[in-house]
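Example 4.3 (complexes with small molecules)
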Amino acid sequence: MIRYSLKCENDHSFDSWFQSAEAFEKLLGADMVTCAVCGAYNVEKAIMAPQVRMVHKKDTKPGALSAPASPAEQALIEMRKKIEDNSEDVGTNFAAEARAIHSGDAPERSIYGEAKIQDAKSLIDDGISVTPLPWGNKGKAN
Ligand SMILES: [Zn+2]
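Answer. The structure with zinc ion bound is encoded below.
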């Protein structure tokens, strides 16, 4: 006896026992293998995900196994790069610099940096546009 994991055209998965591999092929060819769930004739052997643990070579570089960033993370990284490439990092001077730009004491440009919540709030109160960045200010991209 041989057991196959089967899948029908409607994506139902089920297991069936057959006398042999040939018997399975024969029954399948004669449309005698049907879905256990919906009775569909269009049934095929399911592709089994191999349950094999990869043996890693010693020379594998650390970090090589890290999963790629999700599209959302990727987008955030791209956005961060864009902002950091096109803006000036004024660090903790952010609030003062934003005010200076607003009042015309400093050249108009895009800046980013750190500001205390209160400072950011008072900037907004004064009509200075401030956007909180979704990644805080811990370390730069790249
Ligand atoms: Zn089915």
